[in-house]
Prior knowledge:
The structure holds 2 protein chains of 2 kinds. Chain A is mostly helical.
Amino acid sequence: MAGRTGKGSELVTILWLFLLPLFGAVLVIGVRRWPIVVVSITAAILLAMVTLAAGITHTEYSFLLGRLIELSPSLGSILAYCYLLMAILALASFRSVYPTLNYAFMLLFISLVTATLATEDGTLGALLFSASAIVLVLGIVSSSSDKSLASLRVLSVIVLIGPLLLLAVWALEHRALDPNNISLMRLGAVSLILVIILGLGLLPLGFWLPSIYKKGNPIAIISSFILQLVLVVRLRDILYLNMWPDGQAAVAGVTVIIATITVVGAGILVVFQSDVGGILAYTAIADMGVLTIGLCLGTSESTQVSLLHFAYRGLALAGGSIGLGIIKTSSGSDALSAIRGGWHNNRLAVLGTLMCGLSLVGMPLTAGFTTKLSTLSAMGTNRTANIIAITAASLGPALAWGRFALATQGSQERVAAPSQVIASIFCCIFGVVLVVCGVYPRLLTLIVPDFIEKLASISQLLLW
Amino acid sequence: MLQGKLLEQIGQSTSYQMAILIIICAIALQLVNNHRAALLLLFLQYVLLAIYVGPRVYGPLALLQAGIGLAVCLILLVSINHLRKNGFAAKQPVMASRWLYRVSVVIFSSLAAYGLWRTNILQLNWLEGMVGYFLVSVGLVMAAISDDPLRLGFGILVSINGFETASVFMNQGLLVMGMWGVIAILLALTIAAGTEIWLEGQEKAVNS
């Protein structure tokens, strides 16, 4: 408990971060007939939460019904980043057409995510994670038509992550009491690997992610990104505290192989996609593979790079998903054959989406390139085959984004749709930020003088 | 002392009966075609599970579990009524080949449950393990093969019931049991919303 402080007033911050979005969700349901009021309330609540989370200067903890809840400044920074992404999405959707109930589910999701990260108890954390995942699907279901049961299929996969996490926690905690029990050791490791594959959307079990991306709802896409970030932080606790000696290395070894297969598999599958949602989804899956490899390397440098990669990935997905939403609304579909003339009709959105997509691919002159290159360098010379495979697999997503750029050329009549100037501007800003960070990576240290120290401190939460 | 032993024996035989009834309920849920009958069986499963775990947890928690089951079933009943109103209820008699298929699915999921029970990965006692593993495997198989949103939803709920039962034998905390309740309600809402959206999609497809 060294280094922690806990006072009554500090508990209030944790409770505010949990209760504020919960009250917000109820309020939003009450005023759901007025979309502008709903968006304003959601954005205001999320911005207030950004301020609260970023303002945490020392570790705050308390006990709730006998369970330890804790928020460190590093965790506060991660939460502030998630809240900020959601706030920007809410602001970007100011004139858009998302159903208002979506914002209520967004706030409920944020509340559950906060509770998941704040609770130290493994069992409760796994159950809260499960609840967050279900609310994510509830948000998807409430916002789109679905005649193929895709959302419920996503639910049936995603709902397994919580119980598997629970199983891993239970097995590894009991193994700690009975170190010679091999079956518990195996059960813990297998459950953890399954959680990593399912939760991070790695192949062959990560097919729930494209179903979410293809719906083209930015709120759902960023919620799934946040869910993955939360899972990585929670897994850190399990891998760091409950694993046996060499256990981390064993799990990391298997995961690196699966992640490499994911990068290569998604790199091939993306070529066959005929819609922007599919291209974004498989590019994101391939990118997740690279990120997972970075996390599995387990050194402090690779973890810092992975944290930065996560941050850039969030920006790229936010920009890409906003762009996808705009293209889908303005063309009536996100199929490559339907977006002809997109460049003429909505240059900002197309440019922003392209820049975000290329950053996810890891193309030079984008932020994604810097972190991908650092991850590949950190893999060392004994994994040369993996490095070659991953680099070659980047060609698939690059080609797919090239097809997207070509598909938007030409001219075609615009479908009658509400103006999305604000969303287009936000989409383009995300793209420009990623390019600027790629061209001049030192910019972050100029803006935040102690950036490297902060990165090192926050990355401890991701150290597998 | 004799009285204590007798009470213990009665309690144990009640546990056996409950376990067998829960398993029969899960099998029947896989076999029936009618949504309302399936919902009734699901509710019965919730009640039986509450009675089954009742002696092991703080009394009112068992009541809470039955209450959550009632809430879940009421939420799903609304969706079933909407399906019936729109003519998507399974009214037609089930063909012999369909019965054969369902029976083979039951046999397959029972074999999977038996495999899990034999390995007993959670180190539960044989009766607790039998209920937990059976519900998990039956539910997962049902969710994986269903092409109807409600049957898929029933499968998810049954498997979550299995996980919950196994978890309750390992951790009987109030907060943990409360969270399982929240998860069940959220699942029911998602399944109901998913069914409505599916229905809307089907109607659009029929009209076009």
